[in-house]
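Q: Could you fold this chain for me?
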Amino acid sequence: SCLQKLSKEKRELILAYYARDKQAKIDHRTEMAQRLGISVETLRVKAFRIRATLEQCLERCIDRMAQNK
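A: Sure. Below is the predicted structure, expressed as structure tokens.
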């Protein structure tokens, strides 16, 4: 449900950002940044901010679930 609360653009970005492993991950993130017309560092910051939003949402959901038990 937390992913669904994100805009389509942010949801697609974060899913793509974490989609690969090892060298493929690095290459994929470089390609993503080029497609978006931003630097890899800017992409990293965007992903960090989206992930922080997701983590907060997940923490709230977990807290609610714990309170309902």
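A (continued): The CA atoms of residues 33 and 40 lie 5 Å apart.
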